[in-house]
Amino acid sequence: MEIVRAKNVEDARLWEEFVETQAAASNYHRWNWKSVLERSFGWPTFYLMAIEAGRVKGILPLAWQKSWIFRGCVASLPVLSAGGVVADSPTAAAALLEEAKRVTTQVGAKFLELRYRGPSGDHLPVRDDKLTVVRPLGPDSEKMWAELGTKIRTKIRKATNAGMTAEFGGMEFLGEFYALFCENMRDLGTPVYGRPLFEEILKAFPQHTHICIVRLQGEVIATSFLTGFRDAIEAKWSASKSQHLSLKPNMFLYWNLFCFAGQKGYKVFDFGRSTPGSGTHVFKMQWGSESIPLNWAYWLPAGEALPQVNTRNPRFEAAIRIWQKLPVAVTRTIGPSLVRHLPS
What we know:
The protein is an alpha+beta fold. The protein contains eleven helices and 13 strands.
């Protein structure tokens, strides 16, 4: 068993062929996320392949998130909600994990973080304070409509009667998406990702990336950035204008996302990452959804305690309040430089 660091075109071909054969491989195991993370954040990547008798037996994509705030980590994968080891044998999985530990030690990162949907299988300490929410889709919009609760249908009708419209596209909608996304992130008190992240995703996966824009009398009031793989599509980033919430733009947005995705042939809608019991989690569950645990496994070279980021810490609360008062233009300028150093 040999562990190699995949770098060239031939390595990319072998990597993608392996991903296609593995049911456990996620959207975020695809090769092109390597260039997305490198170009968007400037993070070094280590795409590890286990090779035996000339055949790929396992993969592990890693990115080194350098940070002057928390000394950085090696993760699979930062920003994204999945990654971790995918292998067709325990031997390959163990070899990949050992190499990941060596990489973490060599670069001087504080810890190794492997992100999984469901059980990790690494026998490492796990944090399980995040989850994702999914619901089934179908091509028949009328059937999906009939399956919704009465209260949900009433809220969607309210938005429809107000005159909202939904459009789907790609790069041509990026500017409108990003403007509202920046505003929403400022309101939440969170530094925003740079526009290049979204540009790189659209370039890397043009057939599987979509932007939805919801308008009211020409004004963009809600939006979502979608990324698909196999039979599932994820609303990775969404935003809406708080001053229009009484008209239920989020209900209108998600109903249109379901219809669009179902007609595209997707069978599962992924609402994206949430904190259990939060308002966003409750919102996502009302659609007849189910929660899937996100288990993030850790290896810490010094045997330290699992990393914890508690936004209820007074220092975090103070920073959030300050950020919320800044002009959007300011947060849009300094946010991308700051967010690359924060746990994500």
